[in-house]
Design brief:
It is a single chain. The protein is of the alpha/beta class. A six-stranded parallel beta sheet has the order 3-4-5-6-7-8, with helices on both faces. It has a three-stranded mixed beta sheet with strand order 9-10-11, with no helix packed on it. Helix 1 runs parallel beside helix 12. The chain is globular.
Amino acid sequence: MPLFEVKDIDRKIYEEELRDFLPERMIDIHTHVWLKSLRPPKPLAPGEVKRTVTWPSLVAEDNSIEDLQETYRLMFPGKEVSALIFTSTRRDTAPKLNEYIRDCSKKTGFPALYYSMPEQGADELEEIIRRDGFLGLKSYLALSPDYIPEKEIRIFDFFPKHQLKKMDEMGAIVMLHIPRDGRLKDPVNLAQILEIKQRYPNIRLIIAHIGRAYTHEDVGNAFEVLRPCEDLLFDFSANCCEYAIYELLRNAGPERALFGSDLPILRMRTRRIEENGTYINLVPPGLYGDPRQDRHLREVSAEEAEGITFFMYEELLAVKRAAARLGLSREDIEKIFFGNADKLIRGARESIFGA
């Protein structure tokens, strides 16, 4: 039984819109790999506040390394796709899942990031990275101390400065999913990104999801503010906002944009729209449970659902439209989908391990 169904509409979009647009080799810079057996569900404790949206967890219970590779085979026939992998975890499940990522990296040759906890010491992280072959860190706002309200979380609450200083010394990659309701345009986020690049210039910093700028209103003047950061990288994982992608490519250029998926959630069938400054995932009826469980979900009719393809393809179509508006070349597209990531990974490996 296949991992998921590939429908005629998916094949049509891939063959007519995407196959020739995409280069033969691709590196997905943003993928989550984990096993349900190593991260069993955990109900919220009394009084505990959920710091994440619900809908991503409805797409897949887990994403083994084998499932990831099968996803690429099903979605990108004829292409050679590899990935930078990291897990998705809670504090209590992090050790086993980081070990799983280490083993997956050794098995496949895919580079990997270590999922760090803010309480970990700098020397501890360096030892783990050098011992297990990681190229840097990924963390998440939900790992910030519990006493901090979600809306007040800052970058340094889950990526403390002692860790960033060590990553700077190592020339490591840091994958940054920024917090706060203001997303990319939030002035606190922008100030702290600037501080990171000024104080820790050797960090290979990636702003995930274009700073969560999933709608036109999320962009603001961010690219103007961040203009001094000439080597700041952005991935457009899980982002279908053509305006945000266009502004990224127009301001930062194709040399600083990276293809990322955020798999497994891009296996989702959805068409994303913007409404009142937020994003809505339009989904087939019944496919992801009761849509009332998340304000970002809305079911469409069965008839309309026939025209809905993978989230992955919607993201790539948005990139294609933005690239066409800017007149990007085949060389530019190759950089975005392969060359930039390849250079980044090789640079981090050489800086950390000398080879």
